[in-house]
Amino acid sequence: MTMQNTTTAAQAPVVPARGRLRPLGQREVRITGGFWGDRQSVNGSATLEHIQSRLESEGWLGNFDRAAAGTLPEGRRGREFADSEVYKYLEALAWEIGRTDDPALETRLRAVVARVAAAQEPDGYLNTNFGRPGQADRWSNLEWGHELYCLGHLFQAAAARERTRPGSDDGLLGIAIRAADLVCAEFGADGRDGICGHAEVEVGLAELSRVTGDPRYLEQARLFVERHGHGTLRDIEWGRSYFQDDVPVRDAVALRGHAVRANYLASGAADVAVDTGDDELLGALRRQWERTVARRTYVTGGQGSHHQDEAFGEDWELPADRAYSETCAGVGSIMFSWRLLLAGGDPRQADLIERTLYNVVATSPAPDGRAFFYANTLHQRVPGSPADRDATSPRASSSLRAPWFEVSCCPPNVARTFASLDAYVATADDDGVQLHQYAPASVRTTLADGRVVAFDVETDYPASGAIRVVSRGDAAAPWTLSLRVPAWASGARVRVTAAGGDVDEREAAPGTVEVRRAFRDGDVVELVLPMAPRLTAPDDRIDAVRGCVAVERGPEVLALESVDAGADVSTLALAPGSVPAERDGRVWIEVIDRATADAGWPYGPTGETARPPASRAVPLVAYHAWAQRGPSTMRVWIPAAT
Amino acid sequence: MTMQNTTTAAQAPVVPARGRLRPLGQREVRITGGFWGDRQSVNGSATLEHIQSRLESEGWLGNFDRAAAGTLPEGRRGREFADSEVYKYLEALAWEIGRTDDPALETRLRAVVARVAAAQEPDGYLNTNFGRPGQADRWSNLEWGHELYCLGHLFQAAAARERTRPGSDDGLLGIAIRAADLVCAEFGADGRDGICGHAEVEVGLAELSRVTGDPRYLEQARLFVERHGHGTLRDIEWGRSYFQDDVPVRDAVALRGHAVRANYLASGAADVAVDTGDDELLGALRRQWERTVARRTYVTGGQGSHHQDEAFGEDWELPADRAYSETCAGVGSIMFSWRLLLAGGDPRQADLIERTLYNVVATSPAPDGRAFFYANTLHQRVPGSPADRDATSPRASSSLRAPWFEVSCCPPNVARTFASLDAYVATADDDGVQLHQYAPASVRTTLADGRVVAFDVETDYPASGAIRVVSRGDAAAPWTLSLRVPAWASGARVRVTAAGGDVDEREAAPGTVEVRRAFRDGDVVELVLPMAPRLTAPDDRIDAVRGCVAVERGPEVLALESVDAGADVSTLALAPGSVPAERDGRVWIEVIDRATADAGWPYGPTGETARPPASRAVPLVAYHAWAQRGPSTMRVWIPAAT
């Protein structure tokens, strides 16, 4: 691990004190269109306004006004963590303002910050649900109260704002600092031996430490991380693994318990490990990431198998049915993977980020940006009825996207991820720039020694697999362009076409391909990823989808949806020997329909095989685009007829 | 459907006003040993005392004393439905006294009844959790309050007592009548348009109507049944299907929602349909039973796929992982099937009862009768740690049996089922007796026209498949002995050996085999069921166990347990061509071990097959006998190597 010479802090969500790769923020990377640019546009033009409108109509913003007016607890609305949605929204606004410089959003952010500021107590305490006469005491319910969790999101919002508008006079950073000082006083080494039942304050404190330079916040984050796993919280029905208080972070084997909590804690622990130079902790987190990816992650990148406790299942327990795969767990997984990627540069972490972005985070919002999946099942058995677009849904609904939830973490979590997405595209090290995600983009940065790097990315990926990197300006000295070659992309090729016409082409094995040269204006590096649809089989130990295949194309997992199949998907199977093929811009497979009458008792002697019926071709849909054409049934894992 | 001439009410849990078959109660059928006799002994000698002890130590019996002393709500303990466990226990005591005439149990029952009686309000209201200053108002929370549910269990207990000790002066029937009169006044046709969020009062009222002859209780049961499905209750996160308030009972397609609630409601609806002659309703219930058995039932007979809401899944959603298969849902399924069997005589209902008794109800208790499974998973991935035998467990624990639960319906539900099990063995119709379950037993009854039927059953079933029915005494006239041939018993044979030595043997196809003759003392009818272990495959639409087989032997589902396999079961697969075989009193299969190193990302290209490793023989264990030798992993569905 080498020290980074970060002359100016990146306009990015995570800016570690050290690490193999240095993040490039919104000032240095700009997504200019394409798959992700479109989503950023919808996010900025529709989702942010939708969230503001719901925060008002649900009364969650109004809670702050009631706090300021001194009338709480009367009329307080929403769950105990409702404050946090306001903070996630503020973070999303901060990134969107950084991205677009929209004055209307700037006005909106300042108005929200003013309402939050008015609710803060003189000693820095800030929460609308605790501490007043008629409310429970401050910090009296660390298991479920979410007070520190809410503050963690406040700190992330303040860090986002400070990175995008350093020194702004809106007051957000001051609010965060006053609250963080109180947290340090209350929960410091000499204070309460407590942690929050929902990790998040750790990552918030680490980021606040980075933007303020105050080491106390990092130390407080470290204390919170280390206190996990010692039975610090009271036990609950699902066991202390639910909030990762069963095993110390550095001793754990895999992520476990509530999947959002687990990823947020791992992210905060990674921040602490990197900034304090705790390589033992960082190594433990890497091993947990490996094990979690190998045994507890859906093919979509989704994590969390249980509805009941929104938790990881045991190893290999990955049911397609009722896969919980919470949108926010996807966001948390990206947070964790990104931190490990910055620390160590392992391209597999960028692979998982890509997979999760396309197949979890992008699956959540409807095309109009005003309805969301909270959970992302891999098998929908019942079509459901059209959602009432004005209703607030129970959180675990998975048949149709809903505009809002009683527990509504997903919409603002998606919003802050999309608004900051430019910062996940590329990084730099001492000798060049690494492209991790492929989107039309412009990249302009200066390496530590002053070498200027400037290029544009031209691509319609993932529609096609051609990614063109066009150098802008003549470089004074050689530098290295690194391109990620996804693990699925066997047979990828890279071709360098010099502005002068020379061509050099070679195979690019999965992992990373590097091109080092003194780039001239107009030099083109083209990476061509093989985009033929492919059949994917699960590890034999994933019991729930044995005998099934998934179809993938590039980074996208595909799905079989009833509106395309012309039939319920429950009786369809991949015809023997069928190979997916592209035609008319879609991927088709041959299926047979094994519909039969009920046998009465559905278990019987083995060995009865009927002659398979005739097959027919059906088109698939990108998983992230399912459920956009009315109620339907859907499956990602398709039985393979034998 | 023919009217039954029931001269004396059977000493049995369900005595309908009419139906194809007449129940034979404890006076007429006595289990004399064997598999079920042993369990009845443990139940009587250990489980009942264990339950009494826990009801005292948990304070659930003490709640009644506090109610009588007027000190509630102070010190009330347990959940809102704690009263019901006392009533289920009373029902179990009543049946056990009927079975054994144990004076110590009689004393115990009277003492408990006296404590319950002292808690009843002057107007008949009886519940320790509602209606007093400092408690919620009576009937103010029908969704979750369980007041009527508790009374339903009181009514079932009173019916059990009246059938086993008619006219007893213990006072239990009077308590029930006073409470039922209040229910009728409160919820009658002119009263509150309400139902209970947990069905049970329907079946209790129907039974109370039968023992008292008071038609008002049947009418009240009918009203409660009919009020389901009209949005009578407030909506909840999981939807009104949770308490079957989504669709009227007569319009429903299958059981759905909370699996215990669903089966209790269906049982009460069947009682109402039969006693009021509502054949349309009865037909609807039969169709729901068919559909539920065909699409929503585990191979063990277990029902309920979800941990979150303890509910049925959608059609074909039957994950082995975390199969909830609550013990009480098994009890409820037996209640429902038994009522349909009495009404229509379909032997498939007796098949399901047998399967559920062996593989759900018998699986719950430990051999010592003092620890229980609440849920009955079909796949245990993690061994768990040895249970603390004194601790009260969270209810959904499925790795090790626990002595008691916060929601402790299962122990007394198992107890009342075992104590009344004699009454599920045989029935009568106008021309004879039907044997539904096979156990060593003596059967003595008189048919409607006065013909005397007397025989003993000699068998060590399910150890072997030979069931000998030995006639006792010379019958004055011919009568028909009907024997159930389970659906799995292809190739069964029946042999009649006259006392004089004549032998008549023939094949007995699955369903029912009848022997009609003027039985002489010593005549033997022997049914021989094929007990060779067999491989069973699931319907292709049960996604979660595709590519797997189960092994069954007679009525018992077998399981592969790590303590036998000498390895964790997650990597074992049935060797190609392996056929289960009996040796040394156990069933063995050949398995191969497919243990491999993690691939990093567990999804990859199809078509990679390695040469299978060498196979080895491992013994299986009866599913009901798993987890009796320390922590283990286990699976019922075994992957079939290809």
TrEMBL record, chains A, B:
<dbReference type="Pfam" id="PF07944">
    <property type="entry name" value="Beta-AFase-like_GH127_cat"/>
</dbReference>
<dbReference type="InterPro" id="IPR008928">
    <property type="entry name" value="6-hairpin_glycosidase_sf"/>
</dbReference>
<protein>
    <submittedName>
        <fullName>Glycoside hydrolase family 127 protein</fullName>
    </submittedName>
</protein>
<feature type="domain" description="Non-reducing end beta-L-arabinofuranosidase-like GH127 C-terminal">
    <location>
        <begin position="533"/>
        <end position="639"/>
    </location>
</feature>
<dbReference type="InterPro" id="IPR049174">
    <property type="entry name" value="Beta-AFase-like"/>
</dbReference>
<dbReference type="Pfam" id="PF20737">
    <property type="entry name" value="Glyco_hydro127C"/>
</dbReference>
<feature type="domain" description="Non-reducing end beta-L-arabinofuranosidase-like GH127 catalytic">
    <location>
        <begin position="28"/>
        <end position="421"/>
    </location>
</feature>
<dbReference type="InterPro" id="IPR012878">
    <property type="entry name" value="Beta-AFase-like_GH127_cat"/>
</dbReference>
<dbReference type="GO" id="GO:0016787">
    <property type="term" value="F:hydrolase activity"/>
</dbReference>
<feature type="domain" description="Non-reducing end beta-L-arabinofuranosidase-like GH127 middle">
    <location>
        <begin position="433"/>
        <end position="531"/>
    </location>
</feature>
<keyword id="KW-0378">Hydrolase</keyword>
<dbReference type="Pfam" id="PF20736">
    <property type="entry name" value="Glyco_hydro127M"/>
</dbReference>
<dbReference type="InterPro" id="IPR049046">
    <property type="entry name" value="Beta-AFase-like_GH127_middle"/>
</dbReference>
<dbReference type="InterPro" id="IPR049049">
    <property type="entry name" value="Beta-AFase-like_GH127_C"/>
</dbReference>
